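[step 3/7] inverse_fold.run input=structure_tokens len=197
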């Protein structure tokens, strides 16, 4: 994992190796919710889905998430009133947009997500890429995660970025691989068992 602190921006990166084939991991990633690792994900709606002539599947989805942990952190630090004057921290559900692209021929799965709620003042962008492991392309998969956090509200923007980096990416993003492992161990295993019975 690495962190890069730029002017009015934080860039976050992490990688993870799954001991499963690319096809297994991508199937789990595309069917990750609902998931006990992410109880804060309240809704997911497919806006559009299409398959191009070259077989690439593109999907656009909207998500509704609980971000109460961020609000509690701001309140505990004594900054609730200052931040609430800039954005409505009493909003219960934050919404985000997600675009994915699956290329089965190239064995590539790309995901790009961005917040909709508070997007005028805070930018949360995440990029995930799943590819076969170069040393074992049939049995292992590499996940590359990166994120960009930006809040230009001087002089408190840096504090917002730090809180979001700690809560959203150091805590929540670390659950991503575990959530996929849960799907593989439960849903995909159950589907396989049902098909064989």
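[step 3/7] decode complete -> sequence:
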């Amino acid at each position: 994992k690495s962190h890069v602190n730029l002017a009015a921006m934080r860039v976050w990166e992490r990688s993870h190796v799954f001991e499963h084939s690319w096809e297994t991991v991508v199937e789990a990633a595309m069917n990750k919710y609902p998931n006990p690792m992410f109880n804060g994900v309240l809704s997911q709606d497919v806006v559009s889905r299409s398959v191009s002539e070259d077989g690439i599947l593109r999907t656009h989805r909207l998500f509704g998430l609980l971000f109460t942990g961020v609000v509690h952190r701001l309140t505990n630090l004594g900054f609730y009133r200052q931040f609430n004057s800039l954005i409505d921290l009493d909003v219960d559900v934050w919404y985000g947009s997600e675009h994915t692209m699956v290329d089965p021929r190239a064995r590539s799965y790309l995901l790009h997500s961005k917040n909709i709620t508070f997007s005028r003042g805070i930018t949360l962008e995440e990029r995930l890429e799943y590819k076969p492991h170069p040393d074992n392309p049939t049995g292992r998969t590499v996940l590359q995660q990166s994120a960009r956090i930006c809040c230009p509200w001087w002089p408190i923007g840096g504090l917002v970025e730090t809180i979001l980096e700690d809560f959203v990416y150091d805590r929540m993003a670390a659950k991503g691989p575990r959530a996929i492992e849960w799907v593989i161990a439960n849903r995909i295993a159950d589907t396989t068992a049902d098909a064989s019975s």
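[step 4/7] annotate
Helices lie at 22-30, 68-76, 80-84, 157-173, 175-196.
The radius of gyration is 18 Å.
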